[in-house]
Write a structure and sequence with these properties.
The chain has 541 residues and is an alpha+beta fold. The chain folds into three domains: 2-137, Rossmann fold (3-Layer(aba) Sandwich), CATH 3.40.50.2300; 157-396, PPM-type phosphatase domain (Phosphatase 2c, domain 1, 4-Layer Sandwich); 398-538, Heat Shock Protein 90, CATH 3.30.565.10. It has 15 helices and 21 strands. A six-stranded antiparallel sheet has the order 6-7-16-15-12-13. Strands 2-1-3-4-5 form a five-stranded parallel sheet, sandwiched between helices. A five-stranded antiparallel sheet has the order 8-9-10-11-14, with helices on one face. Helix 2 runs parallel beside helix 3 (66-76) and helix 10 crosses helix 11. The longest helix has 42 residues, at 115-156. It is extended, with a radius of gyration of 32 Å.
């Protein structure tokens, strides 16, 4: 009675030793490896130690009934099939059958049973169980592979926050299911000049993600061989050839290719069927969609012999130091509400305009998507990607504002604390404030590393710190991609002597109490998968 070429491993549980002996004899030479026990507690221990295919279970037992044992089995294994063998006579309302059938993997046979009928039931049930088990293993492996593919894909993309000497870029990347066909990248061409690609490959899931990986490698190669003389139309024509010739027109991609020159504050871009950049004007507060002539309506991969041309399709924009640019894929504007009304371009523009009021903050994409969800547009059917890029105006010699990013590990976060301490001393001369701020920052970052982030590694999502010195207070903001958390505002008693003992500080385990003793006000917000924590520290005198 082999099933898929293997013997059946069976556990029989019955309070009557005679019944167990009869079962053993009946299943002898039937390719069944049988274990027997007479009490529920022993049964559970055997199930934990062995990989059984099926359990034959008596309902009436001395230490617990069969239903109590089944509950314990299900706490350990929700799929293991059980056949209830019992001489109990059911009620007129079929209460027994109803109780047995409440569990989908439980079957029933009345004692005394017919051996051939029991053998057929065992074989049929085990066959179904093993088939379903293989299916579950397949999907588990598939999920694990998708998780791995998602991690690899995120390694190909820029970190969610990039802060360079001449620009700041933040990004929100949200696949509809683990992996995405959206692609973006920013590559340095020469000092102050950067090439950007933002694309949306048709479809989503595994196929689109594979295209994304191939395009990422291709574009990197094209930029590398172009030296400083990068031509946007050449990039698009090569991408068009990739889709039409190399991939035989099996897919296509809408995209923006752009060149940001922060030396002269100039943006040049070509759209290949993709929604243009949005630009926020800090002086007027308005957000407008660039490329009103709608140049560049042909996606790469649509027309084999189409030739992109900078002279006819490129858009050139001169911008101010305070200007911010936003690029999106259409998954955002296609988000819908419970009435199936889609967000659309104009509503997105208005929400962006409202969210970008504080242009100092580099995390506007997260504010915008939070505002979209609060407006009721929560249904997502396509991958979502949003970028923000602007000139970095926070200079090294600025006296009241400091931006810092660090990878999530102790070495880099400790360095971040020292940088903030030196900044405070240099620009205020207040050593006590500097020490308190460094201690607060280090305690909080250690909490993030130990409790908030599952993985602390060089390639992990960076932590962003923003420090502003005002006349009467210091505002410290920290953004991280750890677990959601809230700050307990209840006061915690703290031994004042703790400040005089570094060892005590290190081992007291009272980090949050220390933070509360320093910060006059703490605020926590969550925007998608991003935590924002604000600390306000009053200045003395």
């Amino acid at each position: 009675m082999k099933v898929y070429g293997r013997d059946i491993k069976l556990l029989a549980v019955d309070s009557e030793t005679v019944n167990l002996l009869l079962l053993e004899e009946a299943l002898k030479d039937k390719d069944v490896d049988i274990d027997c026990c007479s009490v529920g507690g022993e049964a559970i221990e055997l199930i934990k130690k062995n990989n059984y295919d099926i359990v034959l279970l008596d309902i009436v037992m001395p230490d617990m009934d069969g239903f109590e044992l089944r509950k314990l089995i299900r706490a350990y294994d929700q799929y293991l099939p059980i056949i209830c063998l019992t001489a109990i006579i059911d009620t007129i309302h079929n209460d027994l059958i109803e109780k047995i059938s409440a569990d989908q993997a439980t079957y029933y046979m009345k004692k005394p049973f017919n051996l051939d009928r029991l053998l057929n039931m065992i074989k049929s049930v085990v066959k179904t169980y093993r088939s379903d088990d293989e299916t579950r293993k397949y999907y588990t492996t598939l999920e694990e592979n998708l998780d791995l593919a998602s991690e690899v894909q995120h390694l190909l993309l820029p970190n969610w926050i990039m802060m360079k000497e001449d620009f700041i870029m933040s990004s929100l990347y949200k696949p509809v299911y683990k992996i995405s066909g959206d692609i973006f990248d920013l590559t340095k061409v020469s000092p102050g000049r950067y090439f950007m690609l933002l694309g949306d490959i048709a479809g989503h899931g595994i196929q689109a993600a594979l295209y994304m990986s191939a395009i990422h490698a291709l574009v990197k190669t094209l930029i590398m061989v172009s030296d400083d003389d990068i031509k946007l139309d050449d990039i698009l024509n090569r991408l068009n050839s990739f889709f039409c010739v190399d991939m035989q027109k099996k897919n296509y991609m809408t995209c923006l290719v752009a060149l940001f020159d922060f030396n002269i504050n100039k943006l040049t871009f070509i759209s290949a069927g993709h929604l243009s950049f949005f630009m926020h004007d800090a002086e007027s507060g308005e957000v407008k969609l660039l490329n009103p002539e709608n140049k560049g309506a042909i996606p790469v991969g649509w027309v084999n012999d189409y030739v992109f041309n900078c002279k006819t399709e490129a858009v050139e924009i001169d911008f101010d130091d305070d200007s911010s640019f936003f690029g999106i894929t259409d998954g955002i504007i296609e988000m819908s509400n419970e009435k199936d009304a889609i967000l659309g371009i104009e509503k997105f523009r208005l929400l962006l305009e409202k969210s970008v009021a504080d242009t100092i903050s580099p995390v506007v994409p997260y504010y915008v998507c939070h505002a979209i969800e609060k407006a009721g547009y929560t249904n997502i059917e396509d991958d979502v990607c949003m970028l923000m890029i602007k000139k970095n105006k926070v200079l090294k010699d600025e006296k009241n504002h400091l931006h810092l990013t660090a990878v999530p590990d102790i070495l880099h976060t400790d360095f971040m604390g020292m940088e903030c301490e030196h900044f405070i001393i240099k620009n205020t001369g207040d050593e006590k404030l500097a020490v308190e701020l460094e201690l607060l920052l280090n305690e909080f970052l250690n909490n993030i590393l130990m409790h908030g982030l599952e993985k602390c590694q060089q390639e992990g999502p960076k932590i962003l710190v923003d420090l502003v010195i005002n006349e009467d207070e210091v505002v410290l903001k920290i953004w991280d991609k750890g677990k959601p958390w809230t700050f307990n505002t209840n006061p915690i008693a703290i031994d004042e002597n703790i400040w005089d003992d570094n060892n005590k500080l290190a081992t007291a385990g009272r980090g949050m109490a220390i933070i509360k003793s320093i910060a006059g006000k703490v605020e926590c917000n969550r925007y998608g998968d991003l935590n924002e924590t604000s600390f306000i520290i009053k200045r003395e005198g």
